[in-house]
């Protein structure tokens, strides 16, 4: 029997570190935590990450760089909008001063939507709903901890179960 490798509908457990190539800053890592567990081919990972890990076996280590097109995409202007400052009155009344650079969460019909405050003007606050990593090139160092076939239930649910997975 051949060794299982990362492919569509397998469960992969990986340790990873993501860095920004220009500064070397770590933006995310599983270091000191349980490995990341994901069901391959079900949109749980950014596209380039899944593509680069295809065919990897347990114990294998891979390093790769993803341009924005293969990561979180480029920032979209239509996701940047101005809101009347009055809509933020409840936050300011609680003693929090809203400043550019803050991340806040809007409650929408689709659920919570995090956004970055990019400008605070006299009457408006500019909100950027783009992903924080949109427009960035990302470097990853990944070690494959385990690869196993997914169960029918995991495939039908669209996520991994068990250790490091979503649960039952």
Automatic annotation (TrEMBL):
Residues 9-99 form the PPIase FKBP-type domain. InterPro entries: PPIase_dom_sf, PPIase_FKBP_dom. Its EC number is 5.2.1.8. Gene3D superfamilies: 3.10.50.40. Keywords: Chaperone, Cytoplasm, Isomerase, Rotamase. GO terms for biological process: protein refolding. One of its GO terms (molecular function) is peptidyl-prolyl cis-trans isomerase activity. GO terms for cellular component: cytoplasm. It catalyses: [protein]-peptidylproline (omega=180) = [protein]-peptidylproline (omega=0). It is an enzyme of class 5 (isomerase). It is found in: Cytoplasm. PANTHER family: FKBP-TYPE PEPTIDYL-PROLYL CIS-TRANS ISOMERASE SLYD (PTHR47861:SF3). Belongs to the FKBP-type PPIase family. This is Peptidyl-prolyl cis-trans isomerase. It comes from uncultured archaeon MedDCM-OCT-S04-C14.
């Amino acid at each position: 029997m051949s060794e299982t490798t990362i492919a569509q509908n397998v469960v992969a457990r990986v340790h990873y570190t993501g860095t920004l190539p220009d500064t070397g800053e770590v933006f995310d890592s599983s270091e000191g935590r349980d490995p990341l567990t994901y069901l391959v081919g079900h949109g749980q990972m950014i596209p380039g990450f899944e593509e680069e890990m295809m065919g990897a076996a347990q114990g294998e280590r891979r390093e790769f760089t993803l341009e924005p097109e293969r990561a979180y995409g480029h920032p979209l202007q239509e996701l940047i909008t101005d809101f009347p400052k009055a809509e933020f009155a409840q936050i300011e009344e609680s003693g929090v001063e809203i400043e550019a650079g803050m991340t806040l969460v809007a409650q929408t019909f689709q659920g919570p939507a995090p956004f970055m405050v990019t400008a605070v003007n006299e009457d408006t606050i500019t909100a950027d709903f783009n992903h924080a990593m949109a427009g960035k090139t990302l470097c990853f160092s990944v070690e494959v901890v385990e690869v196993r076939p997914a169960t029918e239930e995991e495939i039908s649910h669209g996520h991994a179960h068990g250790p490091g997975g979503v649960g039952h």
